[in-house]
Amino acid sequence: MMDPLVSNPCSPVLDLLRQLHDSLKGVSDGEVATYIPELSKADPDAFGICLVTATGTVYEVGDSQVPFTIQSISKPFVYGLALEDNGRGPVLEKVGVEPTGDAFNSISLEPGSGRPRNPMINAGAIAAAGMIEGRGLASRFKRVQDMLSDYAGRALPMDESVYRSESETGHRNRAIGYMLRNYNILSGDPIQAVELYFQQCSVSVTCRDLGVMAATLANRGMNPVTGRQAIRGQYVENVLSVMGSCGMYDYAGEWIYNVGIPAKSGVAGGVIAVLPGQVGIGVYSPRLDARGNSVRGIRVCDELSRHWDLHMFNSETSGRSTIRRKFTGAEVNSNRVRTSPEMAVLRERGDGIRVYQLQGNLAFATTEVLVQEVMQNFEAIHQLVIDLKRVQTLNESACRLFWLTVVKLAESGKRTVFTHVDRFPLLRRYFKVKLGDRADELFRAFEDNDLALEACEDQLLSRALPARTTDHRVGPLEFDLCRDLTASEVDLLSVCLVHKRFAAGDTIITAGDPAAELYFLVRGTVSVLMVTAGGRLSRLATFSPGMTFGEMAVIDRAPRSATIVADSEVECQLLSLEALDGLRQSAPEVCIKLLTNLSRTLSQKLRKANRELSVLD
Amino acid sequence: MMDPLVSNPCSPVLDLLRQLHDSLKGVSDGEVATYIPELSKADPDAFGICLVTATGTVYEVGDSQVPFTIQSISKPFVYGLALEDNGRGPVLEKVGVEPTGDAFNSISLEPGSGRPRNPMINAGAIAAAGMIEGRGLASRFKRVQDMLSDYAGRALPMDESVYRSESETGHRNRAIGYMLRNYNILSGDPIQAVELYFQQCSVSVTCRDLGVMAATLANRGMNPVTGRQAIRGQYVENVLSVMGSCGMYDYAGEWIYNVGIPAKSGVAGGVIAVLPGQVGIGVYSPRLDARGNSVRGIRVCDELSRHWDLHMFNSETSGRSTIRRKFTGAEVNSNRVRTSPEMAVLRERGDGIRVYQLQGNLAFATTEVLVQEVMQNFEAIHQLVIDLKRVQTLNESACRLFWLTVVKLAESGKRTVFTHVDRFPLLRRYFKVKLGDRADELFRAFEDNDLALEACEDQLLSRALPARTTDHRVGPLEFDLCRDLTASEVDLLSVCLVHKRFAAGDTIITAGDPAAELYFLVRGTVSVLMVTAGGRLSRLATFSPGMTFGEMAVIDRAPRSATIVADSEVECQLLSLEALDGLRQSAPEVCIKLLTNLSRTLSQKLRKANRELSVLD
Questions:
Q1: Are residues A481 and A429 in the same domain?
Q2: Residue A515 belongs to what domain range?
Q3: pLDDT digits (tens, 9 = 90+) for B179-194
């Protein structure tokens, strides 16, 4: 379970909610429902508002912890469970989805079929209750109660006295039940469905519960406070659709037009409102208008829409922010340190390597933004890296577009590489289904961008430069650090060097150890590793023959700051600090040249780092 | 005008659209409208689909360039113009917004008031036409035609023969006009409104036009291809609301439920569908079902919803990606190079400086994510930097939350600084309105993060370290580059140095010039400037007394890579390359110490750059 994100009592959002509460608490229009005695006992002035974001922060003001019965607000949730139990088709056969323009307790069955017009009127809700799976009333109600509790994030009790009261007076609903039985919308004993309906309406909630329940719908069915899935995501759009078109009884068109937030009210004074992907709202205020909706509840929704710009059609284009960052292999390089000729190739032709870091929710319209970008640069792109690290969700439409794009690039001999795909098993599965055996060839995945970039660079370099064998070995004059040294100066240096061999996997330098020498890498490659905050070993750099490492020792004589490991069989020439100090006396000019070359190497690295900083920022 | 983004003919998105087109072109149900002879001439097999993203890419397949008349698809657009001309209240008085469940040509006036139920039925559309401003029919139609042309991004002609045909046979609509006149819904001559309605229906469009028009609604009223605003953003939600609840005639609830994309059809065979913030769709296929909707048009929308996951309630939580990046003043520093004691303060206490780079569309739910983050770290935050560079839109709700947060921080003595605010004049105005004279004090804005960070650092340093006067002057031993030099070695160096003074604003080094000396900064500050790709001067670094600059000259003897300017009155000691070469012979130990210190400085800078890279990546 995630930590519940309760709002800070000083939060400006809470201030706004308090202002809203203050501005509406004087509204005393409407009457408390009296059709059953239990409801009439409610405090008519009780008033709570709870706003919960789809990211799980809870803001509540006023009487947000006062219990009351959920009543008709249970209808969309039970309808959702009926969809999960039966699927869309069978549910649609028994309950329609058209607004009626009639009051909540109208019977509104379609002539002929007897199908209730929609699941928000009592007839439709009873028909939905009749479709809940379970052996007997108790087990069915248990499932409904558990489902509602998942939405609320706590075990919701039933108010027995309200249930008894509902059941004792609910003759009209029993009539509806028998009418539905007559049309075979309900099968078996219709009274069981009617009783389940009374029980679901008698579940006790608080305004805070309603807020969390609404936020769960706003968050594609996952309770954002507990992290628990209360309904499969695919049915959320159907639940919201019926709330949007039929939720506020004979008020549907005007509600969408003026408020534009799918909502549902209950006669005990509760209201929920859901702005998909954004917030859920719960209100409690028992005074009802003539249509049976909470007067202040409606006012709250109205104010939020009008003054907080919350309206479901008030959407900005999100596509443009799909591409978090893009860069080429000429602008940013892998942590494999390259030789000067290699760097020259990467600077000149690294432009064919394009890295796109994506973010947000990848669906059709957002993924299209990448596809369009790739197609516009089709000629220039030779290798494409798609980084999914910051992607939050990725749906099947996105998978389809990725697959088509990868195949299209492959047909022109261009490679695509994905990074950070482990969080999205759907993507790998999609490629497998579409490509079968070719999936492994076309669906290339690397753990991170650094490794992906290195692979792309290697591919480019292998075509541009003569291949180096693994036992390629460099002589003293080829070292960057030995630039400008005369042959006799090289000889002076060489006599100070000690030859050393390492096997693949050997630790050459251990972080924390005292620094005693500088390494000239003659053969093989070595990697600089560091333990990240997350405890993972991360590669800072990889060096190849002709490069030196451990040179910081020369400068500050401080302990080693990182561990260096042999990637392959490795040969080095070691220059100890004592030998260096000896050179300083006996051959200062060699020392000056080495230090000048070291400064040049450092300043080249610094320029590269600064260039990458400006690209990445 | 922006460049129109036409899709690449090889785009995978176009492939998908082609597949969809292929799979539906065999559908031959339905009949071409025949109620006027002109319509019956349409090719029943014509079939085009055009999808336009809210970012402005156009994808079209099939008969997307065949002209036909817009017919009832004009209704939501003209309704939008009526809203702009009259405002919401007056329009709502004359036309309702409730779905009727009746056919498109039903009269459906509310009993008593005579108000048409909604603007998508003919009666409501004629009432909306009656509310279009202008002197006489011609001028009114001109405004309607211009408005539709703005949506389409090209001048749309009227089909005269269709208009004549509509007018000759439109007796039922004239009856409606007189009925509306009877109820004072229309004033003056009702025939003028009816004729305007015939004319608007006779505007000639292509399927591509419809796609762009739909995308304009998806993009909050701004044509994404031309960049032109076709309707004020605030009315788009109303237009989409009536399309959503009443667009597909007696099919509203089921449409929202199954397809979930606000849409409108016309009897000539056109359909538009709008997924807010994502895509607009235009379809042309003249075969109509019994309800008067294009058979293939409905199938296209249905397929897009089912297989492309496009449903308006299928929204993922976008809030989490509001914060693109966050870092502290201990992790990333401004380009002002700090002295060692200053760096120590920043490392220790820079954590109180928090920079948040935001992105995307800032509205209530997205801005709340920042507010929540700030409130959770309230104690730790001493100075807050809010970077709006990557923000695309920012609405009034976002302004309100920013204002409240800034005031809350200020009450606890904490400062907020905004960067890149110039694109959002609304924000400054909002602070001005709310704070009056205090706005300048509380609404601090800097051009970029670097300057904002520097100001925050200065603030922190001014409280932590003794103030330096502007004529603070350092001696030779205080230079980083002179570390470990003995007094006699300093003397050897000093005789080689030449003293030089610069006035504030003087250019000390010009990029491209040959390098001839190294500068020891004795008094004042200097900045390294570089011309960015955009032609702007950008600051790479600012140095203060005790630092050296121009040292790369010592190493590679290459031309200067950047320009350095005196920020204040400046005094330097110059070490020429000749003098350095002299030292190399006469005092190699001094040279070795200088080079060792230079390497240390460079490697410290490299470590800082690498640390910032890992934070920023």
A1: no
A2: 476-616
A3: 999 999 999 899 999 9
